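Homework-ish question, so no full write-ups if that breaks the rules, but can someone show me the predicted structure for this set?
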Amino acid sequence: MNIQDNPLMIEQAKLANRRQFFGSAATGIGGMALASLLNPTLFDSTIQAQERGVPAIQPGAAGILQQQHFPAKAKRIIYLFMSGAPSQLDMFDYKPGLVDMFDKDLPDSVRNGQRITTMTSGQSRLAVAPSKFKFAQHGENGTWFSELLPHMASVADDIAVIKTVNTEAINHDPAITYITTGSQIPGRPSLGAWLSYGLGSANRDLPCFVVLHSTWSAKRDAQALYERLWGSGFMSTQHAGVALRSQGDPVLYLSNPTGMQRKTRRRMLDALQQLNAERRSVVGDPQIDDRIAQYEMAYRMQMSIPELTDISRETKDVLQLYGDDVTKPGTFAANCLLARRLAERDVKFVQVFIRGWDQHGNLPGDITSMCQDVDQGAAALIKDLKQRDMLKDTLVVWGGEFGRTVYCQGGLTKDNYGRDHHPRNYCVWLAGGGIQGGITYGETDDFSYNVTENPVHIHDLNATLLHQLGVDHEKLTYRFQGRDFRLTDIHGKVVQGVLA
Amino acid sequence: MHGMKILRHDTNQLSLFVWLLCTSVAAAAPSEEGVNFSKDILPILSNTCYQCHGPDEAARKSDLRLDTQQGVYEQLESGEHAVVAGKPNSSALLQRIFSDNPDLKMPPSHAKRQLTQHDKELLQRWIKQGAPYQEHWAFIAPQQAEPPRVRNRKQVANPIDSFLLNTLEQQRLNFEPLADPETLIRRLTLDLTGLPPTIAEVDAFLEDQQPGAYDRLITRLFKSPHYGEHMARFWLDAARYGDTHGLHLDNIRSIWPYRDWVINAFSNNMPFDQFTVEQLAGDLLPEPTLAQRVATGFNRCNVTTGEGGSIAAEYLVRYAVDRVETTSTVWMGLTMGCAVCHEHKFDPISQQEFYKLFSYFYSLTEKAMDGNALLPPPVIKVPSQQQSNQIAQLESEMQQWEGKLQQTIANFEYQELPLKDDAQEIVARADYIWFDDSPPTGAKLNQSGHPWKYVTAPEHPVFHGEKATYRSEKGLTQHLWQNAPVPLRIGKDDILFAYVYLDPKNPPQEIMLQFNESNSWEHRAIWGDNLIDWGNVNTSSRLRIGDLPETGKWIRLEVAASKVGLKPGSRVNGWAFTQFGGSAYWDYAGINTQTVQANTEFKSQRAWELVQSAGDLSKLSAAVQAAFKVKASDRNTNQKSELRTYFLTHVYAESRDLVSPYRHEVDIRRQRIAEIQKQIVSTLVMQDMPKKRQAYLLIRGDYTQQGEAVESGVPEILPSLPADAPNNRLALANWLVAPEHPLTARVIVNRFWQQLFGVGIVKTSEDFGVQGERPVHPELLDWLAVEFQASGWDVQYLMQLIVTSHAYRQSSFISDKKYQLDPENRLLAYGPRFRMDAEMVRDVALFHSGLLVDTVGGPSVKPYQPSGIWKAVGYSGSNTVKFARDSGEKLYRRSMYTFWKRTAPPPSMQIFDAPSRESCAVRRSRTNTPMQALVLMNDEQFVEAARRFGQRMLTSGGESDRDKLVFGFRSVTSRFPTIQELNIMVAVLGDHRLRYQEDLEAAQQLIHIGESAVDETLDAQELASWTMIGNLLLNLNETITKN
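A: Not a homework solution, just the prediction itself:
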């Protein structure tokens, strides 16, 4: 059999190799645990462990790719995910001609018989709803932004707005599953899981893939999210995203129970490691070494995570950059700052979710709230990364699962309207990580209904994200049920036009 | 390519070599000898060549196909032959693969998959040896080979060992000796029940020196109620069982009776063929039992949507696709999903064949949009045994009372009254009083001016009864009632009346009676001056009857109902006494009528019939209604009897009172039955539409692009369907378990093997196709598959066979040599040893805590879960957006009953690799992560378990610390600790004591974690210290490992 073609077998061989290391190294981790008896603080710090010359334990740290397929432009991705589908027509895709089309029927030639959801397919007419928001050009190249996005507009020269992202799915569940996992049907690994599997972790105290959920201020009944969106699908569960929570423990089960101090936990762990090491010497199972290492990592995480989420040492300037919300845990601004802190710690993939964009009715009111939620935080993230010289190797992505229709759902006035789901084109922007700033890519027709130039399918987008991390989306595969699966299925082209 | 390079670089050569040896164990053996097509050649062809020369016609290049015997030998368009048996030099295939010419070289250099030198040489040797062609091993029905002879016959307990040992001996290896009895009983108890043995059970097993002790243990465990639960748990992964819809709102969906069915099936050792047929097609069996229909829940476990805007046709296709994929994976180990969009690239499954299977599952009566309902149809009611018994009991009692009632009625002598003429006077015309001393019960009172005021005699005039009402105001004033629940019924010629007494000193200028019908007061009669400006003069909304009546005496006011617009059939439910100025008394109001009012008593059946037949029949039984629909003169005896019985039972006072105690007895039972009926749960089942929905091949799997119509059928590569049976799901199910089917028994046996040993004989237990892993012991797999079928698909027989083998019972000690040779233990040179599954990890902790509740079956429960898990992802309109933790016993049920929200499964389970249950899973990954350590250390459930386990050690572990520690240690490991282990525990106990003696508050906090009560008689500091020991022992690697 061809082993070099079979990632499963390679993974297995490497695992065997690693186990062998633990097994054969006479002191191994059992020895470390014993040593920690003499010096209980030994495990408190990874640095101390390294100073002793003990190799760092990196469970699941190494990725399947021994080296990237191309030189990586980005080391990590921060993906600001706008769940519910923001309206491209009211934010980025400026269509001045629509003013004259107010309340007129969408020409059949535009829709061209395309399927639409059953929420509006029963409407007697599809009346055009021009955006009520003012647009202006910003930055050196004059990127269009609506008045909803003053902060984003201020970083216009750092971002590439893609106007022609498209998908086949027309409802939220399949569409968001599609863009995050490459398939509309549950069961595939998510983008972050692919990165964890392919590239592994660069930080031994933190997971490779972290998910943050944000509060939102538009109407409460926002679309649901699903664990599968950051799940590992058919891959091993270690590749799944770990949610960093703003309520309770930031990482599930992180805190010791009340009444158990860190010293007590350390003492219990010492005894545990000793007992495990005793058993290891009798039964010869190298898995036990792994288990011992995991407990030490857990113990380290109990320190490193609270340190990560503690923003008390951020400067006033930085906090001001993100706005007042930044001190309220769980807000989008707070999560953007956390994302930067995670990026600093070399977490490979951070995905910040915010819900509330599903605006079938009362769009102008709700989109204003949502933009207030995200505008400053997203822009601050870019500025902050830039001032730390991290934007060059951090790829920031902003976007949702599809766009919204030019025609109105429900009642239409100049100041109030709703928009249905629109998969045929919508806006996503990229910044940093080898992306060309200050550009607008792709063009749509006068109704923001069809792509007229440079379509970017969501598979293309995902291929591009992988590409910037040095990964050929056609070559990062995982064998399951006899088939080599890819994030991009059998599709995807890197969008060369947005690369720097 | 990268992989290979690095492997060479990083790995020491020896281990790579050994590893290669193991992964192709038997395959590598015949080096210069015979090449085996199926083992050696087919994998190369499928992996490297099928992409362009395989089953997919659209992708096929140069018309060469290498996946069929014919294709391999056939003359090509170019005139060449790819393969000429025995003639390497004439075989174009070899010329191409060895060619250096980039235009000729195969595979082309741009191809992702290239051949190794080893591959090329194998192909060459194969052709040299005559190029024998065979089908893929898994498509050839298994045969039972003679178990091979082995040298070390002492280690052969049954044929399983012969097969395994034969391979081991070729590698100069042996099994390990039998594991010690403590390890054995723990291993077996965990494997057959998912729970560890108690110390008492271990002791009993150690003491049982009689032959057959192990077999007796097996028998005992098979009878444990936990056996069925444990076996069912694995199946629920395959069935993608969950408690929510899985898509979009992810609301609760109730299908747990199916889970109970699976538990029962395993507990009762249902033959696996029956188990198969009932789940796939129980509804199509002749006169299916309730249980057989519940079983079909298997294919209703798939995820469904109710998302607004979704297109029904798309989802109907998705559901059917899911069912094909699940059914194929679970029973056949085939990855049918590949053929949804195109011909299968590797296995001989065409796209058309996929849609033939699809057709079996495409005609359900389900709706594409599930409405986010708890029970999206088709569903059935599933009374528990207790409920069925109760209902039967109540029905039988009801019958007895009914009998007595009937008897009494039959014996009652009733004489119809003689009547003068037909319709008239059946109810005597008389005054029916609606108001006297009080308004009708339940009516709403109202007024303008002062509130209702009652007066009594002798100070005031009262016409009838004890009270009259009195009203004195300037100007317009009134008192009234409305919304009377029992209205006045208006009939022909009826007259409304009321009594009024006008104060001679201060008479009103006008008085008025108003009647309310259907919320309208536009029915008014007036006396005196026409001052009240309501309604239209001289119409029924303001009809003047005459002058004010005489003052100082009671006068009867009368108005014909028809004159104020109240037609026969009207229902009056409000009445107002209105006056303009002055003082007046009001009393005794109603209707002079012949119409049956609410409480009219009938003395004549004939009268009742006449009245009733003109009235509302809908409340009467069907039989009585039917009798009424027949003209009186035409009624037959039966109908007459129905009416008579009804009249005497319900209407005629004399007889009614006689039987009313019986009726009461019947009624309370009927009510009780209704209550029980309401509590009976329902579950989702399969049901086909009367007329099949036509299936089509869907081009590129797109539901909008229908290709040719297809009929139900099975892939050609597999045996054909029985010719004489209807071609439906039942035929498909029977076909799967037919003796000649090559896959089912192998696939199932392999999964039971995987369950016990951690890895299957075929590691890719979900894929037995050409791209799947070949069995590491093919003869053993076939032997077991045939044995399983021959036993009548007896699951316990198979389990017993495996667990009595030496291979299973051997020690799991891992020597460096064996580990290096075979780190995954595929050869089984030592016993199974691996971390338990998520559910077991939790169940084991609950078991040691003494908290585990061992009720079997029932709805799912919601034990501890960190807050906000559901809310973080849930749609606000979903009924699973808020997690409400259960309390009491529900916190301590076995984990298989934990409520499974598919879009946010229980996190502590997910962390231990439980699948999301969104799709079928027949193999779990087994990771080892820091998150797992955090769960075991800190999850409230586990800390509480540690506390209760600590308490058990403290109170029932013995006298001394050492005794208690031994008790705790033995509980979790089933063995005695070594001196070193005991010393480690003694030392840490001492340290914890010191710490908690300094800090009572910390101790108090620790021992109050979890809902279960704290034994306040225990010393808090001592209990905290033992809680820490409990926490230590529950975190022990050995505790969560089956070894």
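Now go work out the reasoning yourself. Hint: Residues 1-60 of chain A have pLDDT under 50 and may be disordered.
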